Every structure is written in structure tokens, then in C-alpha cells.
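Comment thread on ticket #2218

A.B. wrote:
> Attaching the input chain for the structure job we discussed in standup.
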Amino acid sequence: MNTPGEKVLVIMPAYNEEASIGAVIDDVRRNAPQAGIIVVNDGSIDETESIASSKGVKVLTHPYNMGIGAAMQTGYIYALLNGYDVAVQVDSDGQHPADQIEILVRTLLENRADIVIGSRFLGGPGYRPTFARGIGITIFSRVVSAVLRTRLTDTTSGFRASGKRTIGFLSATYPEDYPEVESLVLLHKKGFSIMEAPVRMQRRSGGHSSISTADSVYYMIKVLLAIFVDLLKKV
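C.D. wrote:
> Ran it. Output below, let me know if you need it in another format.
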């Protein structure tokens, strides 16, 4: 990864990812050797923390499980306090191949965007979500595209790169629970530039998803309500 003069941090939120965290760290080191790595251990009760620590990366541990929003905010605070120019979210379950990080960072820097979302739907055939998740992704993408007045295809993607302005904003303001969609609405309201880039994704290599099929309808309703509330409140 060639990022002359830019300080890049890979933030890896992790909750009970002992089956995959070690391989993901190795993958990031192999494909983005210039980037710093921080694992935010969100109250895991398995060996996630010890495996990550044994790899020699910085690990910040929450005393209990606080959710992906809190984990990412912790990562952004660390990036802000340590002077990073770019922060890349890489999930610890192996879904985000590290050889795609360069695409996100390059797109961010070349276009001077505030945030770039990795979309699994722009690069042709590849990984596809389950039917229930696919419906949710489509609904969220259409709603957020209407709000932003620009076409987005993968608003639930957690594979994203943020610039310095976004790091500062999200370190202070970050939605809880399942924040990927809601954070885009908040960034839009503050006038941040949002882009997508085509990336390759794959199925998780270990552990279990935090969202079951049975939770999908509840999740969709909850996130849609949060979006409409965000449109009404001051940021």
C-alpha cells in the first residue's frame, strides 16, 4: 500500500472472534505493512484479546460488550489522539480482504473524500448476502440514497476508509447498535463528502454473526426509525 506522507490506521472491532482474529491481523500486515493496527476488543469472553496481543498489535479492551458503535468510536478516538490521517475499518471475522484496503485509501485520497465505503455490489459478481439481509441492504441503500441525493449501493458495509475530518467527527459522535447506515446520514447532514468504491468481500471465516435472520425485520425497523430521527435533530 503506497500512501506517501499519510499516516494510516486499521481499526479492527472484535467481539468473540478467536477463530479469525489472528489470520485477519496477518492478512493486514501482509497487504498493508505501512498501516498501524488497533484491535478494539469489545468485551470478548473468548481468547480474542490474548490472540490479538500475541500478534504484537495494540489492543484496547472494553470491560463488557458495548456494541459495534462504541467499539468503532474507541478506535476513532485513538486515531484522533495519535494523529492518523486515515482510518480504515476492517472487521475481525475475515469478511474484508486486506488486499482491498489500498482501493479504499487510494479512492479517499485521490478524490479528497471524507469517507469511502467499500461496496461489494459495484465490482461485478462475487459475495452475496443471505436473502433476508439482501432485502435490508436494498431498502437501506435506497433510503440513504434518497436522503443524500446520490446513489449508494452498500450502506451497511463496515469496510470503509475515513479521512481526518471524519475521524474527528466520529470520535465525538457515533451511533450505537448497528451504526453503519445511520452514521452516513449524520455525516451528510454535516456536509461531509461520501463515496463508494468497488471491493471484493468474502464470507466470514469464523465465529457467528451478531444479527440472526430472525432479528432482521426488527433491525430494519429500528435503523429506519433512527434515520428519520436523525433527519429531524440537530447534529
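A.B. wrote:
> Thanks. Noting for the ticket: The longest strand covers residues 8-14.
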